[in-house]
Amino acid sequence: MISPHTITKDPTDLVTLVNERDEVIGTMDKIEAHRGEAKLHRCVSVYLFQKNKTGVELLIQQRAAVKIVGANQWANTICGNVRPTEDYEQCAYRRLREELGITKVEIKPIYKFVYNLPCNEQFSEWEMDQVFFGWYDGEVIPNPNEAQDFSWVKWQELLEASEKTNADEQNFKTKKVELKNQIKTKHFTLTPWFVWMLGDKKLINLLNKDIY
User: Fold this and answer.
1) Quick one: residue 160, left, alpha or beta (phi over 0 = left, psi -120 to 50 = alpha)?
2) Which tens digits make up the pLDDT trace of 119-131?
3) What pTM was computed for the model?
């Protein structure tokens, strides 16, 4: 068992360490918690959708170049590490605000699972991940320190493109997919964890249940 750390520094730099039963066992600096194979800690993933004439679209973001994992790659709407001072829901709303300037939205928890995978030569993700679902059709204002770009992409097209695209084994199982956003067709390199989630049938079924 990892001994709990005494919180002597800014809690914004700490993550919440847990065991496989999601019981809190301590805290750790967020960079150290991702180093090597990583330490299991709480996080959130949010999926925001909208409906229009062409169907259902998912809001995705391109992560900032300064990120220690997934830099310059595309992921679901937002992800975030849960601080020791907050719960999953508080973290989700905070990260929506901090990453994309989204403040007026309602989300609900739909699924919690654990995944562990390397993201680059130095850092990995090992997450107790609470997934949230919501609808949104408002303004998106990305914080350049968090997200350098965003796009609404067709949900079914994303699922089909990911399914038929082989993972890049030389680049930590990322996938480069071609999708049509609201402006033009472009390539998106998906983060390892986004690829993982798009291949999780239980998660996709739960998302589709809320969408359709």
Assistant:
1) alpha
2) 999 999 999 999 9
3) 0.93
Q: Given 43, 79, 91, 119, which residue is catalytic?
A: 79
Residue 127 is a catalytic residue: yes
What is the C-alpha to C-alpha distance for residues 128 and 126, in angstroms, rounded to an integer?
7
Q: CB neighbours of 142 closer than 8 A, spacing ≥ 6?
A: 61, 99, 100, 101, 148, 149, 150
CA 74 to CA 97: how far, in whole Å?
Answer: 18
Please indicate whether residue 79 is annotated as part of the active site. Answer: yes
Hunting for tokens 């130095």 — which residue is that? 122
pLDDT in tens, 35-69: 999 999 999 999 999 999 889 999 999 999 999 99
Q: One of 57, 125, 127, 146 is an active-site residue; which one?
A: 127
> At 27, which helix (H) or strand (E)?
strand 24-29
78-94: pLDDT as tens digits: 999 999 999 999 999 99
